[in-house]
Structures are given as C-alpha cells and as structure tokens.
Design goal:
The protein has 182 residues and is α/β, with parallel strands linked by helices. It contains seven helices and five strands.
C-alpha cells in the first residue's frame, strides 16, 4: 500500500482516513506479534501525517512523502536506544521532550516512532508522561510494540491502541513471493 509493505490494509486505510478527516490522535500504540508489518504501518501513517496534501495523503509526490519513503524526513523521528545502550532511559526522553518543543521543519506535523516500545524503561515512561498528557499540537507519537505489558497503564490510557492481529501464513507467503518477483 502506497509503496509500504503492510499486512493489514484495513487498519492502515482507517489510520490514513483519520488524517484525511483531521481526526488523528496525538498518541498511538501499534501492538501485535513480530513480523506483522507494524513498523511499516507506522512509517506509512507518518508519511500521511506529514504529507503536504492532507486530503490525499500520502500523495507520494510531495517532498515530505519522498523524504518519508527514503527515511530522511526531518519531521519523522525514529526513537531507539543510543548505540551504546540497550534501552531508552529518562535522559533520552528529556532530550526528546526538548525536541518535541521545536516546531516541525517542513510539515504541519512532527511524528515520533518508537521502534520497539519494550526498550522504554519505566523511568523513561514516567519522564515522558507530561508530554503525553499535554503534547504540542503538531506532535504525534507512535509506539510499536509486540506486547503492551511493558507499558505503564498511565501511558496506555493516553494512547489509541491499534491491535495488529495475526495473519494467515498463506497471506504472508503470497506477499513475500510477490516481493521477491520484483
């Protein structure tokens, strides 16, 4: 879909429709087992959120969409541990809060994708809670996670949960076979 490999077209279409309608939330948790395309869905959703053409987002043609596809959009920030760390700590979240206070570079939205929510320490989640409660109007946070048990209830209560159910092996096999033909 839109050049991003996803297994859950209906979920993704509904997220994109929320962008078209202007009803998207400020925080999401994309939850489901590994291998279901949650990160690709987050990338696609981020492209739609930062697209210059809101009503057809993601258009795939504006500079924001082109940069999103190339993972070089300055308004889409991938949150992961520093190279010498295995987790995202409170200091990392303080730096992210400072970054979130800066308006988007080239679009109306600034999207933060937490690639693996299990890497967020409890201290990091508590540090970031205020930003989740009162986010900048342009900021959107997406936490990608296989199991929400590691997230604090106070974080979960401020996010829209998007559950990615398991897909049949035949669907996955078909998608991989199509991809390998190209």
């Amino acid at each position: 879909m839109y050049g991003y490999e996803t297994f859950h077209d209906e979920l993704t279409k509904n997220l994109i429709k929320s962008v078209h309608k202007g009803t998207s939330s400020h925080a999401y948790v994309f939850e489901g087992e590994k291998g279901l395309g949650k990160l690709n869905a987050a990338r696609l959703f981020a492209a739609a959120l930062t697209c210059a053409n809101t009503y057809v987002a993601p258009c795939g043609e504006c500079s924001s969409c082109i940069e999103a596809k190339a993972n070089s959009n300055p308004d889409i920030i991938y949150v992961r541990p520093k190279k010498d760390k295995k987790s995202i700590g409170a200091d990392d979240m303080r730096a992210l809060e400072e970054d979130a206070a800066v308006k988007p570079f080239g679009s109306g939205r600034k999207v933060y994708i937490f690639e693996d929510g299990t890497q967020l320490t409890e201290a990091a989640q508590n540090t970031f809670l205020k930003t989740f409660e009162e986010p900048p109007e342009y900021a959107v946070f997406i936490i990608v996670i296989s199991n929400t048990a590691s997230l604090l209830q106070t974080i979960m209560s401020r996010c829209t949960l998007v559950h990615f159910p398991c897909v049949k092996d035949s669907i996955v096999d078909t998608m991989y076979a199509q991809r390998n033909k190209h």
